[in-house]
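Lab notes, practical 5.
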Amino acid sequence: MVGPNVTLKKIPRLETTNSSVDIDLIGIAKNNNLTRSAAVAFMSYVTMENLLKPDFFNTSNDTIKTMMSTVISATLPKSNYTKLTKPVNFTFRHIREFDPNGSLSCVYWNISEWIVDGCSVLESNNSYTVCSCDHLSTFALIMQTSRPPESDPLLELLNLVCVIVGLVFFTLALLTFALCQWSPGVNNVARINICISLLLAHLLFLLTQQFLTLIRPQQVLCAVISGLLHFLFLSGFVWMFIEAVLLYICVKNLSQISSKKREVLRNGFLCVIGYVVALVVVAVSVVVDPEGYGSEHCWIKTDKGFIWSFLGPVCIILALNVILFICIIICLNLSLTKLNADVSQLKKNKIMAFKTLAQCVVLGCPWILGFFINGSEVLEILFLILNSQQGTFIFLIYCVLNNEVRQQYRKFFRRLFCGHKKH
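Output from the prediction step:
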């Protein structure tokens, strides 16, 4: 409120939790010849959008309408002079995820519908939008987005089948690593934890997508699931890096990993590194942007560059793995020139280096490919197949292509079938 003897040169910005208004109240008071005074009331309604829904915004386009702000009201109380000297600017903080392809409209409530007459968008970014209106009323910000194409049932079926097949092979690989008798120089802790992390991640993602219509309205649950997926997928990459480190130690010393790990790389220490690193990344991501989790598919939101909280560590790990593989190749070549080099151990190390490199490609490339999908159906199908079959590739690389494991498989099946025959 300002009176005839006002000394202010500019009215300060009026703010609520998610919105603010800039109004030339001094100019209005000076033009009020009767009292030379004026007052403005600015209100924000927390849940009014549930009543004055965006569907009341009638447009010719068949689009999805989303309320992007809280509903606000601005009025000049107890004043006969309501003519504005300048347009009023409202700043709306977005209360929902912003779609860069969406169209924003500054609207006001007129009896029974939202209309745009006299209002326009001054500026906008991912976080807020500034609207300019030449009158006072009840206002809001509505975003229009084109309706997504109907889901392809064949693509959904392919996704379901591929993920289930991948989960089966993850389970088989995990059972093989845990139950088969391996030579003393082999440390399977990294592979076991890779399978555990990715098995849980793919299983959680499958269940989430199957019950998405029930989970999506629960924003907190959706955000928790996306954070858990972030942690599980990231821990899989951390374990992949740990396996490369273990291989490098083995090649560098031409000794069994088991003898080295007793000194500094105990399994407990590896487990702490494998999961704490991923947990720290997720915790920092939550602190930096608490609203970065919980997209439409209960995954990391792609706006504001938050997706790099996952892609960034993945790219760093892949780069470090490449450096390690170069070092491993150099060490292997140097070992060949030594007379006392263990030829059989060198051969094993070469095979392990190849398998670990293949694993790095299998786990890393699908996510890099997914970054370039951009609506391409071919790339989407390719990403779906490669990403869902990570368990299949791991089973083939470390189990089917391992002579020792094949021999143990043969013994197992012989006992199984011979036992049935005896009965």
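Observations recorded by the TA: The longest strand covers residues 138-146. The two ends are 96 Å apart (CA to CA).
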